[in-house]
């Protein structure tokens, strides 16, 4: 079995050695331009077209939860992937715990009004703020996949009312579920903290706009853990200025790195992290990939296969 590997920034040798340890019979190599030797599987991030084009692969594994890079390449170069070759993404592999940490940190901070106390501290103002009521501090998840479900459950543990919205019906124990465009308004109107974990597809680009934000509970909060293009930047700034949104925590952006002159940097009510809310954990990711390849070799279909039409 031959496996080719490409990632623009990961330590290639560590991944090659790690996969070979888990699949002793495999031959794993770093793909380089001009390499047209046989391969059964490809492990990739932002793959060059020439890496995959013309190969009859048994499977391609995207080294991340998102597959925007590959789908974007396929849109421009549909010949890059032979028909029927399955594409898999990392659904968890340690990322759900990191997403939980990020969401819980910000939700608890806003719930306890710690961000407002920090502003009072800068003003040297000793003042007690009225506590938020937990039953009114509802959390809404846009996206109810593996990561969305994990974040929802972690917030349930803190006693918050949690709801989720997804394109198709999903059921998460203890969570109020909504689905489809016809139920989006009802979902939004009962949400105080909106957490975005939607996949990035043509249908979801720009979904977090002024119209959507205006439907949230008054004084809402936003966490974007998915992709930057989901948010219309100017609409978020307008919603903050109008008081429709109290604060936002953003990990992803339309342009990355975020330009130094972008108004998000100087906005007092926007928290920024550099697209690291949940990073790929190599050991967990390699465990999944090795197990998935073993399933493929036994004519079984692993979890995490991407629907190329839907984009996730």
Tell me what you see in this structure.
With 312 residues, this protein is of the alpha/beta class. The chain folds into two domains: 2-93 and 280-298, Rossmann fold (3-Layer(aba) Sandwich); 95-272, 3-Layer(aba) Sandwich (Rossmann fold), CATH 3.40.50.720. 31% of the residues lie in helices and 16% in strands. The strands form two sheets. The chain has a seven-stranded parallel beta sheet. The chain has a five-stranded parallel beta sheet with strand order 2-1-3-4-5, with helices on one face. The chain is elongated, with a radius of gyration of 21 Å. Residues 106-277 form the D-isomer specific 2-hydroxyacid dehydrogenase NAD-binding domain. Keywords: Cytoplasm, NAD, NADP, Oxidoreductase, Pyruvate.
Question: What distinguishing features does this structure have?
Answer:
312 residues, alpha/beta, Rossmann fold, 7-stranded parallel β-sheet, 5-stranded parallel β-sheet, 10 helices, 12 strands
């Amino acid at each position: 079995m031959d496996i080719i590997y490409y990632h623009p920034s990961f330590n290639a040798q560590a991944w090659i050695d790690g996969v070979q340890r888990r699949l002793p019979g495999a031959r794993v190599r770093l793909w380089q331009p001009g390499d047209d030797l046989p391969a059964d599987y490809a492990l990739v991030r932002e793959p060059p077209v020439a890496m995959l084009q013309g190969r009859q692969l048994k499977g391609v594994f995207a080294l991340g939860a998102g597959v925007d890079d590959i789908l974007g390449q396929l849109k421009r170069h549909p010949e890059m992937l032979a028909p029927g070759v399955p594409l898999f993404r990392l659904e968890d592999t340690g990322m759900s715990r990191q997403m939980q940490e990020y969401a819980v940190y910000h939700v608890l901070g806003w719930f306890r009004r710690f961000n407002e106390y920090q502003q009072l501290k800068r003003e040297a103002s000793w003042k007690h703020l009225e506590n938020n009521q937990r039953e009114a501090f509802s959390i809404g998840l846009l996206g109810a996949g593996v990561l969305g479900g994990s974040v929802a459950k972690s917030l349930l543990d803190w006693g918050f009312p949690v709801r989720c919205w997804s394109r198709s019906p999903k059921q998460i124990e203890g969570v109020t579920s909504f689905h489809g465009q016809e139920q989006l308004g009802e979902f939004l109107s009962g949400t105080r903290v909106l957490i975005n974990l939607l996949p990035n597809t043509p249908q979801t680009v720009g979904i977090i706009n002024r119209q959507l934000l205006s439907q949230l509970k008054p004084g809402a909060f936003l966490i974007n853990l998915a992709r930057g293009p989901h948010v219309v930047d100017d609409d978020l700034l307008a919603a903050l200025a109008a008081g429709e949104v109290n604060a936002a925590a953003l990990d992803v952006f339309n342009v990355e790195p975020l330009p130094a002159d972008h108004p998000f940097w100087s906005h007092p009510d926007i928290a920024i992290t550099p697209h690291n809310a949940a990073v790929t954990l190599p050991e967990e990711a390699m465990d999944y990939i090795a197990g998935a390849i073993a399933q493929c070799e036994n004519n079984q279909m692993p979890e995490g296969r991407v629907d190329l039409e839907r984009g996730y």
